[in-house]
Design goal:
Oligomer: single chain
Strand content: 15-25%
Helix content: 25-40%
Order of helices and strands: HHHHEEHEEHEEEHHEHEHEEH
Mean pLDDT: 80
CATH class of the largest domain: Alpha Beta
CATH topology of the largest domain: Glutaredoxin
Distance between the termini: 35 Å
Low-confidence stretches: 1-25
CATH superfamily of the largest domain: Glutaredoxin
CATH architecture of the largest domain: 3-Layer(aba) Sandwich
Strand order of the largest sheet: 9-8-7-10-11
Number of domains: 2
Structural class: alpha/beta
Shape: elongated
Largest sheet: 5 strands, mixed
Number of strands: 11
């Protein structure tokens, strides 16, 4: 259940751009009348305020979320509401354009259809296709947090397994133990595991003091994430020995890691 809840939450982030385009400001008098101190110094995000590649965490335990009437949503209520697909969260930002809260509004019919489709994709990872599958991978040249260098050109002939993630992403963190098992399984094989994180190096190093993640981790990877059209986290893709994208999946589902494993096996035979 927990995995399914967060998959749904992250599906919503993919279509938040639609929500941002439709926001209207709420007066400070209204917020004061409802005694909402959290929102009082914030404003609704407008088009252009939030980079489309910026991950947004929909988690009421860390970011306050409110009903349309500005009543605070409890964690258990949030899960049920998001699973219904009837609402869209509108982000509220501070003066630095950092998302600090969300307020729900009724979803449009188009958004409901988008949500339904994306939830189905995330619950059935094998059906979650991308237009990038079958195409040549985009060139990259990066250095991981240990100083090791990697490029698409130099890795040709190897299978490249990539995970786009960030430290605050709960589904991303939840799947790390299973991803570590994958690294161990293919140790000594012509398989390279790269973890492209949106966080800076210091944030990642602090995270790794309490967590073990065996991928080769590259910090500040928003540019590469943009190249590969990543707008939901986690996102996994696999590049074959000829530098062709063979697999692409977003979200965390019950068979995500198994599907990765199956694809890797098929490519190294």
């Amino acid at each position: 259940m927990t995995k399914r809840i967060f998959m749904i939450a992250f599906a919503i982030t993919v279509i938040l751009s639609n929500a941002i385009a439709q926001v209207t400001n709420v007066s400070q008098d209204t917020l004061a009348k409802n005694n909402i101190n959290t929102l009082k110094d914030l404003k609704k995000a407008e088009p252009g305020d939030i980079d489309s590649g910026t991950p947004m965490m929909l988690d009421p335990s860390t970011t306050p979320m409110y009903y349309e009437n500005f009543v605070l949503i409890k964690e258990d209520e949030f899960m049920e509401i998001m699973m219904s697909g009837d609402y869209m969260p509108e982000p509220y930002i501070d003066s630095n354009k950092v998302v600090k809260a969300f307020v729900l509004r009724k979803a449009t019919e188009l958004e409901k259809e988008q949500m339904k489709e994306m939830q189905g994709n995330m619950q059935n990872p094998g059906q979650n296709k991308s237009e990038l599958v079958g195409k040549e991978a985009f060139p990259f040249s990066v250095t991981d947090i240990s100083g090791n260098k990697y490029s698409l050109e130099k890795l040709k002939g190897k299978v490249i397994v990539i995970n786009f993630w960030f430290v605050e992403c709960k589904p991303c963190v939840m799947e790390i133990p299973d991803l570590n098992d994958l690294v161990e399984k293919y140790k000594g094989k012509e398989v390279v595991f790269l973890g492209f994180a949106t966080n800076d190096k210091s944030k990642i190093e602090s995270f790794l003091k309490t967590k073990t993640y065996k991928y080769n981790i590259i910090a500040d990877s928003k540019e590469v994430a943009g190249l590969y059209k990543v707008n939901s986290y986690p996102t996994h893709l696999i590049i074959d020995t000829n530098s062709i994208i063979s697999y692409y999946i977003t979200g965390l589902g019950p068979t995500t890691v198994k599907a990765l494993d199956k694809t890797i096996e098929s490519l190294i035979k």
